[in-house]
Give the backbone structure.
Amino acid sequence: MECIAVINQKGGVGKTSTAVNLGAGLGQRGKRMLLIDLDPQGHLTTHFGLDEAAPDKGVYEVLTGSLPLSEAIHTYSPSIDIVPAHVDLAAAETELVSVVGREVILRDALRGGDWPYDIVMFDCPPSLGVLSLNAMCAANRVLIPVQPHFLALQGTGKLFETILLVNQRINAALSVMGIAICLNDAGTRLSSEVVDDLSAFLDSHRDSNVPWCNARIFNSRIRRNVKLAECPSYGQSIFEYAPRSNGATDYLALADEVLAVLSGRALPVAVETTDQIDDESSDADVETAEADVSIAAETVDGMAGDDASTSEDAPRETPMKAAVESASKPLKGAEVHRAPAEDVAMAGDAGAIAPIRKAPARKPPSVANRQAS
Ligand SMILES: Nc1ncnc2c1ncn2[C@@H]1O[C@H](COP(=O)(O)OP(=O)(O)OP(=O)(O)O)[C@@H](O)[C@H]1O
Ligand SMILES: [Mg+2]
């Protein structure tokens, strides 16, 4: 059983739309899905029209130990079951604060059953608190929706650091499967800059053992599509509400890509290089890529204002630069710092990230394996 956490602490980037419609797309492809709403806003629950259904039988009751997971599962369709969330879930953060092992409650609940599902998917809230940690501890894969707009990547380094901490201290099986570009305005300079920054970041870690060393940016971009914004109010996924819309097309394509990754049919991601990369040259590559993006930004027409006035003296500071530095620094030089599981929760809550062991260099994959983009 695959468990995928859809996570990004930034709000409004398409997490719920992705959990709902990717989940429904995977259902269309014959997969038996369990979708777990971990957001006190309960948007996934609303999206499937389950707001009024059994308000006392949801993920809050499971996390606080008053209900077994099996009794919190509601059937939406033959291929989709839901564990709903209601606003009371917000209290779980504080109610669980003194509970030992609060990050692994959901993992243990899932381990405790013989479930009929192919894939469990978690819709996480826009924060890195105990609810998101429960998803990361129960999951074996992380899918990160990103909206390619200004400041979209702010805080991404923090997300990767938290994933790394969970991977090293609680859940060694956790890896980042990929980044899904959502709410995409195809053809805009901003969109391609964000994707370039993300690619540079991921490529700079291909030869390390961080949990995102094999992560990809999915080729299927989710275009901005009004039908996707409308379908929640009808309590339907895009495949029921507007099956011929761009939204349905894009999420089905993403579902096929995800299935290819899960089944091992997807081409491996690789960095285009022939020599063994050491950490310094890897950093230099990132800097070069950023400089290239900066230069490209200056040569593209059509953007007015300050953005277009980037000068040679002040190269563009890409949002990802801070994320790259933030996520790369702890990987260098420091000793392994083992901490109990609860420290991870504290790190996630308060931002105190402990130093992390330097990853050993590996031979990079061959150019022949490079994924067609
Ligand atoms: N591709 C799209 N085209 C148009 N609207 C979209 C698209 N994807 C999502 N939306 C809309 O954008 C808003 C935010 O999307 P969504 O709720 O999926 O983000 P989120 O990351 O889950 O937000 P939150 O952090 O609050 O949980 C919603 O109103 C949703 O209907
Ligand atoms: Mg949401």
Notes: The pocket of magnesium ion (ligand 2) is lined by residues 15-16, 39, 43, 123 (CB under 6 Å). The chain has 14 helices and eight strands. Residues 272-319, 327-373 have pLDDT under 50 and may be disordered.
